[in-house]
Give the backbone structure.
Amino acid sequence: MEVNIIGRRTIAELIASGQNTNSYNNTAIDSISLWVDAFNAGLKDLVEDIGLTAQIAINYVNGTTTYDLPDDYFEVMQIVDSGQYPIWKRQHEIEPFPCFNSYFVKDIGTNYQIVFDDRNATETLTLSYMRYPALLTVAAYLTQKPEIPTIGEDALIDYAISRALRNNNQLGQSVTINQEYERGRKKIRDAKYRAIAGW
């Protein structure tokens, strides 16, 4: 279940907060683009913790079994056919025995594709999937807000600083800040579970 509590601060505000931390001085993050790259990497690392979801319709055409998945695809949550019956994931693209009503996801390098068994009918399939947060851009850093709960904004800053410290051979400080990041990650997970449970 998606937690629809997206942060309040823009990229520029997150950068300003990061620059005001004691550990920033040894990071060598000296440009907006380095901050944005680190924030994007942090968002990818937190994708399962944040739990953003999306849904698309796949217009299955009889005889065409392979379809491209969206660019923001991370993981299939559920696929149902036009009768709302689930379609099951199979272990291999080609199974040694017939697999009816199943799918397989394959990585083709530039993106992912989903491969269905031959369904012998044209129908609309509904795919629910976990998605990556939207990529942050330097051009929009004054207005764009990361797709992360407010409670996780500091974790994103900690990720960027820890990564930069590690790249700048400040390993001791990097480990300390990474521990803060992991505590922030736990707060995101806890907030997601509380939202799901209705606490």
User: Anything to note?
Assistant: The chain has a mean pLDDT of 91. The beta strands are 53-60, 66-68, 73-80, 88-89, 102-107, 112-116, 123-131. The chain has two domains: 11-50+135-197, 53-131. Residues 53-131 form one domain.
